[in-house]
Design brief:
Layout: E1 6-10, H1 14-26, E2 30-34, H2 37-46, E3 51-55, H3 63-71, E4 78-82, H4 87-96, E5 100-103, H5 108-120, E6 130-133, E7 136-139
Parallel strand pairs: 1-2, 1-3, 3-4, 4-5
Antiparallel strand pairs: 6-7
């Protein structure tokens, strides 16, 4: 049996979270959700996720700081979902380590295509249970 990929949705708007959860579930993905950056950080540390969908405009911490924090130890793919639509905002998020950037409002087919593209590029994925920082690699699956 193949375990479904788990996608972490970090989004403070309940309607958007619900819409994404239902849509992603229909495509066979498992989802977990956070409404704040701090809640998202706790879920990242305590769960194995295949992809993070991240809103930049969170109520507690700017999403850019979450990208920078995550890139210190992981290559878990990040797709930014944001109302910020300027080219500078997109470039800043991508330079910080995001894999893609989607402006709200977006369509589910567009989001699914971007998720599929991330999962087609295995060089960007860190295997579940593997943390990397610099030259250090920790594989919690092997002792």
């Amino acid at each position: 049996m193949i375990t479904p990929r788990t996608i972490l949705i970090i989004e403070d708007e309940p309607e958007i979270r619900r819409f994404m959860r239902i849509s992603l579930s229909s495509f066979g993905y498992s989802t977990i959700e956070a409404t704040t950056a701090q809640e998202g950080q706790a879920l990242i540390v305590s769960n194995t996720v295949s992809l993070i969908l991240l809103d930049l405009g969170l109520p507690d911490i700017d999403g850019l700081l979450i990208i920078q924090w995550l890139r210190e130890f992981s290559k878990t793919p990040i797709i930014v979902l944001s109302a910020r639509s300027s080219p500078d905002d997109k470039i800043t998020a991508l330079d910080a380590g995001a894999n893609d950037y989607l402006v709200k409002p977006f369509t589910i087919p567009d989001l699914k295509a971007r998720i599929d593209a991330v999962f087609r590029n295995p060089t960007e994925l860190t295997p579940p249970g593997v943390l990397r920082t610099g030259h250090l690699k920790i594989d919690i699956n092997h002792k």
